[in-house]
Amino acid sequence: MIARFLCCTWLLLSGISVASDNLKLSIGQWSFEDLQAQNLQFDLTITTKGLGLIAYADSVSLAAPIGLITDIKLNCHELIFKPEYVSCASGQLDFKQQEIGQQSLVFNIIASPNKDHYQLAITELKLASSIITIDAEFDKNSWRVNIDTPKLSLIPLIEFMTPHLQNEQIKILTEWSIEGDLQLSSMVYGKSDEINKLTVELSASAMNVSDVQAQYVMEKVKSSLVINLEREQQTWQWQTTLNISEGQGYGEPVFIDFEATPMTIDAGGLWQQNDNYFEVSDIKLDHSDVMQLEGSFKGYFDKVEQLEFKLKQTDVIPLYEIWLQPFSVGTAMDSIELAGEVDFHYRQKADDYQLSLGLDKVFIGDNAGRFSLDNVSGTAAWTNSSQPVNSELQWQSGYVYAIPLGASRVKAEVKLSSLTLLDEWRLPILDGELQVSEFSLQRPSGEKSKWIFDGLLTPISMESLSTALGWPLLHGKISGVIPNVSYADQRIQVNGALLVKLFEGTTVIRDLQLDKPFGALPQLYANVDMKGLNLETLTQTFDFGKITGKLDGKVSDLRLSNWQPVQFVANFATPEGDKSRRRISQKAVDNLSQIGGGASGILQRSFLRFFEDFSYQKLGLSCTLHNEVCEMSGVEEADQGYYIVKGGGLPPRINVVGYTRRVDWPDLIERLKAVSESAGPVVR
Fewer beta carbons below 10 Å: N end or C end of the chain? Predict the structure, then answer.
């Protein structure tokens, strides 16, 4: 605007001869190309430095976006008119414009209309509560503009820009709260009406940003951003650096304290404007003391051609606390203890991808005590392509629900979103071993994980198992075949019968199902059949009092919630045709009486106290648990109750009768605890 005004003044005055030191000129209306002025006045004087010019106008109408300006005063103390150029040093221009208000600019200008070359420097431009400096140079086919401001206030700037934005842009701004001050330095280069090169440097000292849902929040952020763009035909080369050194940021669900862990992002690449092809040749994210990430990308905004990023080996603790734990709330990984180092590599070409997680002496432990693994090393890989990759992990020790696990190694092949064991997997459990010969894991794109395996459990001593679980000391061994175990939709299911050798008998577990095994409230369902249990081994295990003979049992519709019984139908009884020696001690009689609701110590007050044990024909007990109430019965109905033990065989014989039909489950548990802690009757 200033350059055109001075050039027009030059053209106007060039045809006037000045015969004195002062010239005044008034023009009511003046038009020149797209410039129109009303009541234009010139006051031209000759000074020692050249000419002095003061020009006034009521209004000047310019092309968009400036439009109409009023109350114009132009003061140039060092105006130089030469055939090749017009210049003005330390000029001042005062005017009013509807949108930017009253202005008082200081400028320097050199204009060469014959060469279409202009140089302009403007200071003291007031725009949206900011003071802006502009340095520009224009040639016939190229131009350069530098814009600088030490303080660009965002709230007034947004208010100023809003009337000029499209509805979609205005809608976006209304969904965000943005406040703070920026320091701006920018350089723009172009030809004709096109931008060819752009450099922007922004820095903020206390920026606050938030969306209306508070899903993304930044408070008191100190940052700097440098953007470099350069175009060659339809291809833009770009480079950017972002540094955040203070403040806090929250992007649901991740929270970062940038003062404790500053972040720097460097990236560069190209953008092909005509087809929206995008390329990130090199991106580096350095999150201080947390992680270092490198990556690259080729493709379109809606289609990936090639993607790769690498997480350099880093301490797993800060990585988990800041970047991983927020995404695991409500899962088994929500509250865990970690140690060691990890790295990560992801590669994608079109729709095929491959990832690998490296672990180096990693410890992972659930704070709720559900699982842990120590000194885990190796690589866990996954891919959806047909090109196979190998996974191999080893660890030193661990546990699942207090059951100790020994050192183990697992090797597998992965392809087409499925994993298959390469070698038999042997997992030490206490003094036994789980042997998994067949295992497959599938996780198709967009679906949940599914796995299935067959295995064998070698004998585990009940002494070690009961000690590990905090149970009463058990005797004997547990072993069995594990057929066709599958996992899908957070449910573990045994599709066949699980055979277990326990208390010298056979236990068959059918319809075994475990829902949400690592959730807050795991649910277990099963039906259990027991054949030929040795009562002498069983009662010795629980210090119940000695009973000899065999026992069969059946537990139907068993349901455990958080590993506590809430429902079942249980029946235990002497099997038909049992020919083993059947004897029961005084202590066992007394304990069974207490369980059935009878009085304890009766034997000690009768002549039967002289006998250490008694023969019996059959024994049994049943309980139907529902709504924390146990409906109890025995092997046969009695006149005033039910027989728990029916006497028979050679004398001395004895009957044990239960009287309680309904008992609260917590009360029954207390009775069993009292039985286990009792020393039993004293035989005199």
Answer: C
